[in-house]
Amino acid sequence: MGRRLFLLQVPENVPIVAVARDLDGVDIGEIGPYYVIESDSPIRIDRRATGVRHAVWYSCVAGLDGWRIAQWDSDALRTEPR
Fold it and tell me: Quick one: pLDDT at residue 1?
């Protein structure tokens, strides 16, 4: 695996990680206080599928390694290679 998306390990982010866990080609891990969503292919997480409120959604990303955010709106969070 190569590129990583980091989310702070707080209860509010668990639904986002749960949806990401079901995506093809995605591995979920932990580094320090962060969830790590890792994939070689772009990641697309549907906000409605997570059930999180907008405040949680727009504050969930803690960092990126090898990705840039291509979309982060009320519909989805989508990455693409940097």
Answer: 58
Q: How many alpha carbons lie under 13 Å from residue 46 in its C-beta half-sphere?
A: 5
Task: Please say whether the structural domain 3-81 has been given the CATH code 3.40.50.300.
Answer: no
What's the whole-model pTM score?
A: 0.94
Residue ranges, the chain, pLDDT below 50:
none
Domain limits, the chain: 3-81
| Number of neighbours of residue 69 by Cβ within 10 angstroms | 13
For residue 74, the tally of other CB atoms under 10 A from its CB is 9
Q: Give the residue carrying structure tokens 């206080």.
A: 33
For the chain, list the strands marked E by DSSP.
Answer: 3-8, 26-31, 34-39, 44-46, 61-65, 67-72, 76-81
* Residue 80 bridge partners (DSSP): 68
